Each structure stands twice: as C-alpha cells, then as structure tokens.
Amino acid sequence: MKLGLIGCGKMGSALLNGVLAAGLVKPEDVLICDAYATAAMQLKNRHPSLIVVSDAAELAPQADVVILAVKPKDIRPLLENCASLKKSPLWLSIAAGITLKQLQDWSGPKARVIRSMPNTPAQIGKGYSAFAKGSTATDSDAQIARDLLGAVGLVDEVPEYLLDSITGLSGSGPAYVFTIIEALADGGVLMGLPRDAALRAAAQTVVGAAQMVIDTAQHPASLRDAVTSPGGTTIAGLEQLEKHGLRNALLQAVRKATERSRELAG
Ligand SMILES: NC(=O)C1=CN([C@@H]2O[C@H](COP(=O)(O)OP(=O)(O)OC[C@H]3O[C@@H](n4cnc5c(N)ncnc54)[C@H](OP(=O)(O)O)[C@@H]3O)[C@@H](O)[C@H]2O)C=CC1
Ligand SMILES: O=C(O)[C@@H]1CCC=N1
Hints:
Elements: E1 3-6, H1 10-21, E2 30-33, H2 37-46, E3 51-52, H3 56-59, E4 65-68, H4 72-82, E5 90-93, H5 100-107, E6 112-117, E7 127-133, H6 139-150, E8 153-157, H7 163-171, H8 173-190, H9 195-216, H10 220-227, H11 233-244, H12 246-264
Parallel strand pairs: 1-2, 1-4, 2-3, 4-5, 5-6, 7-8
Antiparallel strand pairs: 6-7
NADPH dihydro-nicotinamide-adenine-dinucleotide phosphate is lined by residues 6-7, 9-12, 33-36, 39, 55-56, 69-72, 74, 78, 94-96, 117-120, 171.
C-alpha cells in the first residue's frame, strides 16, 4: 500500500510517526507534502526514506490512501483541486468538524471518503480514534482505516453523528489532561515538592489511574472509593474538587468543544 500524508503539522506527523513506529507501512512507501516545506522536511529528517512531493495534486494520484491532515478550512480547496484527477485515493480525513457529506461533495461522487478523529497520543501508540465511512467507501476501506488508526491505539467505527462529541472528548481531551497534570504538579510544588518530582508523580498517577479503569473495567466511582478512607486525606481533597467544580468544568469543556466542532462545518 502506498500511503500519502497531506499536512505534516502537529497531528499529521504524530499519526505518521506512530504508523511508521508500528511498522504498518515502510517509509519508502509513504509520500508526504506540506504547504510549509519545513514541516515536511522535519518528518523527512526523522525518516529519510519518506518521499516528499510538492503538493496534493502531485501526491494524490500516486497514493492508495491519503491521510488529510490539514486544517478544516483548507480541506475544501484541496479536495476540489484534486477532484478532476484521473486516479483518486481513499481519502482519510482527520479534520475536526468536516462532515462526510462535505468530503464527498468536494472530492466528487465516485471518491471514497472516511471521516475520523484521532488524538495526539497516537504518536506513542496510545491514541484513541473513531471513524465513520462515506457511502461509496467499502468495507475494505473501513478495514484500512481500522488498521491505520488501530496501529496507533484503540479505534472504534461509529455512526457519523457521534464524531463531533468524540472530537470534544478524546480529540481535544489530551489538552484537558495535560492541564490537569500541570495543575496537580503545581499543587505538589505548592506543598513543597521539587518541580520534576511533582511532574513525575502527577503524570504517573494519571497513567496508573487510567490504566486501572481500562484493565479492571470497574466503574471509576468504585475505584475512587477504594482510595478514599473514612476521615482520611483523599476525602479532604475530593471535597475541594467538588467545591471548586472540577467535574462540571470538564463536562462544560467537552460540551463547548463538541459545539465548536459542529461550528467548524460552517
Ligand atoms: N492537533 C490535534 O491534536 C488534532 C488535530 N486534528 C485535526 O488535524 C488537522 C491538522 O491539525 P494540526 O496538525 O493541529 O495542524 P497544523 O497547522 O499543525 O498542520 C497542518 C499543516 O498543513 C499544512 N497545509 C495547509 N494547507 C495545505 C495543503 N493544501 N497542502 C499541504 N499542506 C497544507 C499547513 O501549512 P501552513 O501552516 O503553511 O498552512 C500545516 O503545516 C486539523 O484538521 C485538525 O482538526 C485532529 C485530531 C487531533
Ligand atoms: O483543537 C482542534 O481543533 C483540534 C481538533 C481536535 C484536537 N485539536
């Protein structure tokens, strides 16, 4: 399979680094391009066998599958520019908000399109992605999306209407969790821990707690109860989280981000 990547920015490079690390494709079978040439060269420096081409119109006919990793606003002109090419790849968009109907309208009625939403932990094989396929895409196209996204973490096929909420939760979610880790570490510093020790303790606590949710399949509330001794330290901390609205802050973050994803469709 010849894989193309259009847009070698933060998410495109995270995804490609993850796919290459997983060994799903060889770098010599991957074509890349970016409007900002330095972005493509940074990837090329890391994986010298990657093939750098000048633009999407040059890349698309040479690839079987193309990951579209440009900003939502750049998708339409890019696809319309490629719609008249003789050979069309399977388009795998990761753009927030851009719908299957838009992808199909802009790429032409025969084009095969998939809309997906990965997240940056894909870079280390710990991503979460969801995708939905367009009406002309086949089951084997869905399998390709499952293989590519699955090479860098967990993946689910979902009805398209769920993808904005997925974007608000797991697409944007790493940023919420980074903020939580930073704030936990600040708390440790406030209480006298050296900064590096506080950051290490905070990050590993988040990793461990998340892994327990996945491995034990227990409800988070039940796992939390096991930490929370009567009259102990944890309940004193939890009281403050409730008082200062952490739970509602996270609910509202996912709600706003989901609404923003819906707005991005225009
Ligand atoms: N960042 C994240 O965590 C996630 C992002 N996404 C989605 O991924 C997409 C990319 O986001 P992100 O990586 O953050 O963005 P970046 O801005 O980091 O990367 C996009 C790159 O694409 C380039 N580009 C724009 N137009 C073209 C074109 N026609 N041909 C080739 N390259 C082009 C841009 O160049 P220039 O800057 O010169 O325009 C830029 O270098 C977005 O649609 C976003 O919604 C999805 C999941 C998570
Ligand atoms: O902030 C954004 O719009 C992108 C989409 C999901 C994560 N980052």
